[in-house]
Design goal:
Strand order of the largest sheet: 2-3-4-5-9-8
Number of helices: 10
Number of strands: 18
Distance between the termini: 31 Å
Strand content: 25-35%
Helix content: 25-40%
Structural class: alpha+beta
Radius of gyration: 23 Å
Largest sheet: 6 strands, antiparallel
Oligomer: single chain
Shape: elongated
């Protein structure tokens, strides 16, 4: 087992005037550390296309994860998809990734734009084996993975962007490849890369997409652990044990909460310094500094904002610039968790803060356990490994 992991992110825009997207991405994580990713593009747009792509991605991801032959997978899809009453066909294109313990990638492609692979900051021309299944031309590829390898899968709404307007024949795959290669070594997450590509397509469409457009980016990177200490333990005698376990963990260390910071200060024999000059206009409490700790923030208010940003990140990702350029504690935590971390270890104290039990406080002032559970759900959806230890 190596120390590599897959950072997976995707973004879609709907055909102008449609409520549902005709593209669908499905991700299945397996017990052996392998991952299956399917991007499917249903025929047409709207409800029918959404049904076709959802069925295709669900069936394919499940069957491929079960290691069934691709011929059987495709035959099952053909027999299962509902037939379009207007066109008389059942049709959905697809791209399948299977990452075998993040050491080898298997790609199976049918009628979607060919996957772009970027290695060492340059577009990489990988080999493809062609074969036919039920009259369908399928491409299969197997690649040994390296750190920073980046794969860009997309529906045909991306290369069709700008047809007849900005470009005579759309945004060619080769041009998209060069565009993405320019950002591949900048350290952006897959979610950001896919968002950048799709937003550029949306601009080329003039804000009124003529087709559903989806980009799914897979980036191979080293594991990066992150440790968060949140709240004092319910039993004061557990403070030393909690601190010892927290600081013995590899990776960066984040401390959240005033009382928690005081406990850390005593444990490390280092003073807490509050930085009142950073982001004075923010509604997020100021950050602190303790020698030996990477980030010190306030607790409940800061973590509540992090959860807001996490939910947006998984959806429209409209708040990206706020936390990516913000200097407050919530923004700094978001950059560490969303962009750097692959594994997140929470150390959560169960001590009750009387101030948080006031019924007159807004509802978002939940007890810290609820906040951690809510944030952990979002982080897992981002593909992070999350472990929570209570004290």
């Amino acid at each position: 087992m190596n120390d590599l992991c897959a950072d997976i992110g995707y973004k879609s825009i709907n055909h102008y005037g449609e409520q549902l997207c005709g593209d669908h991405v499905e991700i299945v994580e397996q017990d052996d550390g392998s991952t299956v990713i399917v991007l499917a593009d249903g025929l047409g747009s709207g409800v029918k296309a959404s049904i076709l792509s959802t069925l295709t991605s669900k069936i394919l991801s499940t069957m491929v994860a079960a290691e069934l032959p691709i011929e059987e997978c495709i035959s099952t899809i053909a027999a299962t998809l509902p037939v379009c009453s207007e066109r008389g066909v059942a049709y959905s294109t697809f791209t399948v990734f299977r990452l075998l313990r993040n050491q080898t990638a298997e790609m199976i492609q049918y009628d979607n734009p060919l996957v772009i692979m970027i290695r060492d900051g340059k577009v990489y021309d990988y080999s493809k084996t062609e074969f036919n299944v039920d009259g369908k031309k399928i491409y299969r590829t197997t690649i040994r993975l390296k750190e920073d390898d980046t794969f860009v899968a997309m529906s045909d709404g991306c290369p069709h962007a700008g047809i007849g307007d900005v470009f005579n024949f759309g945004w060619k795959r080769e041009e998209i490849a060069e565009y993405m290669a320019g950002f591949s070594l900048a350290g952006f997450t897959s979610k950001v890369l896919s968002t950048m590509l799709v937003e550029e397509c949306n601009k080329l469409y003039g804000g009124k997409p003529g087709d559903d457009a989806t980009a799914c980016v897979v980036r191979i990177r080293k594991r990066e652990p992150m440790n968060i200490l949140f709240g004092p333990p319910s039993n004061r005698d557990d403070c030393t044990r909690m601190m010892s376990l927290f600081f013995s963990k590899e990776g960066k260390h984040i401390v959240c909460g005033g009382t928690t910071s005081s406990i850390v200060s005593r444990y490390l024999h280092k003073p807490v310094k509050v930085n009142l000059n950073v982001n004075l206009n923010s509604d997020i409490p100021p950050i602190g500094e303790i020698e030996g700790v990477d980030l010190v923030t306030e607790g409940v208010i800061t973590m509540s904002r992090v959860i807001e940003y996490a939910k947006d990140y998984l959806g429209p990702n409209q708040d990206y610039e706020k936390w990516n350029f913000g200097r407050d504690g919530a923004s700094k935590i978001c950059r560490l968790l969303f962009e750097e971390a692959t594994d997140v270890n929470f150390y959560v104290g169960r001590a009750v803060n009387p101030a948080h039990q006031n019924p007159d406080l807004p509802i978002n002032f939940n007890i810290k356990m609820n906040l951690v559970e809510e944030l952990s759900v979002s982080l897992r959806k981002m593909g992070k490994r999350v472990r929570i230890s209570y004290f």
